[in-house]
Design goal:
2 strands, two-stranded antiparallel ribbon, flat, mainly alpha, 1% strand
């Protein structure tokens, strides 16, 4: 059953903040069946699936009209198929594949979306919503006329900072209006509006999403909590965390103004831990450490219990600010409360310890991580490698790197980043890597096809008194073969035994 607020909203079409010319793109579907629609309904419901579509095509091609099925006809037929939503969806796809036999507008799209929504075929409904929002045919393309009718500027700025016609923003609002107008006749489900908002977010139509939520909120109707959280997340990412915070307060009716108090009384959805997490991670991403702590305090005042992700974000703030004792306090608090840290939380604290040069503590957490059954990630190893390099222990960093490669956790780009960290550390004259360390690094560079970098490292290795052995020759040969340079590989194969013989003679002389 629909909520009282939703019933009222649908009975009285929501007054938009500006006049929208629906008559140009939508018209009420015919109330009575024509002989053609009656024949089509009978054909679809009684013929076998293999033959119905060829019969339908034959029926429509024999009519005198250039486009036999109007959007109104499609809506009427589709509503008659609402007890068989999969058939209704197949009929919709048939009309798209045979566009000369059927035309569509917003109303006909709204009808099939409602039918699929009431059947809880959400993925299919969202697919059609996204296709509709992308379509230029379903909307009036005369932007100047539209701007003149609405009194709005033709230009808006999207989340990527690009300026474009504001008309495109209004497409979402117009789609919403048509869904409202056709809601009752299709006996739809309330979450159809959530599907529209989420589809807008998928397409980065942020302003349209906000406008739709405002229109729902003005009638005391709340989108689902997951939709509200998705909106806050996208707004924070595209428009900045402070704008996201403003949307958070508006959608949950938490404004301090009188209007906010009024809206709060009629608003039933309360923010949950994920709502606050979206705000925290948004502020963290924008470097607003103080606001992360402020949101944490607000979450506590609201009586919302933090989860592992919440702790992870706040610990990241503390670690990056060099406040390790506070991060450790939070870590212990998690244990007391029985909250299991995830890989992100472990990586955060491990990274904090490594940055502070406390690699022993980081290694302890790394060991604990494995014992707890939590798989370490590429980031875990990168933190440890950087930590060991920071304290001058390149050989231990090499061992961590070797373990990372053995486990095959990271893509090649991330492996090379780890190599660069160690390579940078080895340039420090105070570091004294072993021959084995050089061997491992050169082998990694050759496997990644970074032959020029490997040659530089090999030259440095010789300069520090380490002669290339058969393993290093083998790494270069394999690397050149992989790159298709057989000439260099052949030359090294000839050079290798000569070099090894020379090394043996030098050793005897010594």
């Amino acid at each position: 059953m629909l909520s009282v607020q939703l019933k009222r909203f649908l009975h009285h079409a929501p007054p938009p903040p500006y006049s929208l010319p629906f008559s140009t793109t939508t018209s009420p579907p015919p109330k009575h069946h024509s002989p053609l629609t009656t024949a089509i309904i009978s054909l679809l419901t009684h013929h076998r699936s293999k033959s119905r579509w060829s019969h339908l095509r034959s029926l429509l091609t024999t009519t005198s009209s250039s486009t036999p099925l109007t959007p109104g006809h499609f809506s009427l037929i589709t509503r008659k198929l609402k007890s068989n939503p999969h058939l209704a969806l197949s009929f919709f796809h048939f009309t798209l594949q045979n566009s000369s036999l059927c035309s569509h507008n917003l109303r006909s799209y709204a009808t099939i979306i409602h039918i699929l929504s009431r059947a809880r075929l959400k993925a299919h409904a969202q697919e059609i919503i996204r296709a509709g929002l992308r379509s230029q045919i379903l909307f009036n393309n005369d932007e100047d006329a539209f701007a003149e009718q609405t009194g709005l500027s033709r230009l808006e700025q999207d989340c990527e900072g690009h300026r474009g016609p504001r008309y495109h923003l209004l497409k979402e609002v117009r789609f919403f209006e048509v869904l409202v107008k056709s809601y009752r006749e299709c006996d739809s489900a309330p979450f159809v509006f959530d599907l529209l908002i989420k589809s807008c977010l998928d397409l980065k139509k942020i302003d349209g999403s906000i406008e739709i939520v405002k229109m729902l909120r003005s009638k005391g109707i709340s989108p689902s909590i997951s939709t509200c959280n998705a909106l806050i997340s996208e707004v924070s990412r595209c428009k900045g965390s402070f704008v996201g915070y403003g949307v958070f307060k508006e959608v949950f009716g938490l404004e301090s103004c009188e209007l906010g108090k009024k809206m709060r009384r009629g608003f039933r959805v309360r923010p949950n831990v994920h709502s606050f997490n979206e705000l925290m991670v948004g502020f963290y991403r924008n470097g607003e450490a103080e606001m992360v702590e402020e949101i944490w305090s607000e979450m506590e005042r609201f009586g919302c219990v933090a989860n592992g992700f919440s702790y992870g974000v706040l610990m990241a703030v503390f670690c990056e600010g060099g406040r390790l004792s506070e991060a450790e306090r939070l870590w212990e608090e998690m244990r007391v409360k029985g909250i299991m840290p995830d890989v992100v939380a472990y990586n955060t604290v491990i990274g904090g310890f490594c940055k502070a040069g406390e690699v022993e503590k980081a290694e302890g957490l790394f060991t604990e991580m494995g014992l707890s059954g939590i798989e370490s990630s590429c980031v875990t190893f990168e933190h440890l490698i950087e930590g060991y390099c920071r304290i001058g222990d390149v050989n231990s960093a090499i061992l961590v790197y070797k373990d990372m490669r053995r486990r095959g956790l990271c893509e090649q780009k991330r492996v090379f980043e780890a190599l660069k960290i160690m390579r940078s550390a080895m340039r420090d004259v105070s570091f004294h890597p072993s021959g084995k360390s050089y061997e491992l690094l050169i082998n990694g560079l050759c496997k990644d096809g970074k032959m020029e970098e490997a040659l530089k490292l090999q030259s440095e290795m010789v300069g520090k008194g380490f002669d290339p052995n058969s393993t290093i020759y083998g790494a270069f040969i394999e690397g050149y073969v992989k790159l298709g340079n057989e000439e260099m590989a052949a030359m090294l194969r000839k050079e290798m035994p000569v070099a090894q013989k020379q090394q043996q003679e030098d050793n005897v002389t010594d």
